Amino acid sequence: MLGSSQTETIHIVNNEHLPFQFTFDKASWQEGYGQRPILDIYPLSGLIPPDGRKAVEVSFSPEDEKPYNFNLVCDIRKKPLNLNLNIKGEGYAVHSRLEVETDVGGVLELLPKPAVNRVDFGTIYLNESKCKKLTILNKGRFNFDYLFMPNKTNPMLKVSGAPMGSTVRRHEKVQLSFDFRPISEVSLDGTDFNCTIAGKFEYAIKVAGQGVRPALAFSFENYDFGPCFVTPAGGAPVEHLAHLIVNNRDPMANLSLDCTFDKQRAL
């Protein structure tokens, strides 16, 4: 991956009864003066004892998205032929994008740290629900892993859809759903998540939202009809009426009511 380094270890083996010295030729892999080396060899030279071996670390640090091919030349003192080592590798970058739905039907791109991203559900009434979808897209040529971890959660905010940690294949996407369903007055302030892409790129996500009671006022919450006469069979029932007045005290929002009571014979 660009910006990182991978190291492998090779061994130079001396099968003879005499020691020998080795030296790697820098010109066989260094591209130019002043440029950051793509390969790093350690040690560049050394002495291998009789019937011994020497470990050499080769570090690969690509700077461009392209394949690399190096033919390293190792000079063995007092030997007619050099040792040649072919090193191949490919540089790649993670092309990820995180998006979250907005209230107007669009998408907002999230930014990696040190930026702090905010997902705001606004204010919703109790027993209602609101969903926002977060999408992780892979626009690159290689798969990458992601890990979605909550730092502080709220039982009225559920995360579903894709696994909290998995792989996004190249040119594909995964989607997580944030569902806010308040059943009592609650604030989501302080709820936050971290999303890590390819073990390197981190996103901070803070969630906000309020669950509130609707500003309704009932003229009464309990009513007693008292003793009522029961008419004989076939007679017309005597009705007793009570008027329940409901006031909307919210100056900004219209409220709708649904009565879940099933009509009965006596009421």
Automatic annotation (TrEMBL):
- What GO terms in the biological process aspect are recorded for it? axonemal central apparatus assembly; cilium movement
Cellular component GO terms, alphabetical: axoneme
Which protein are we looking at? Abnormal spindle-like microcephaly-associated protein ASH domain-containing protein
Species of origin reads Octactis speculum
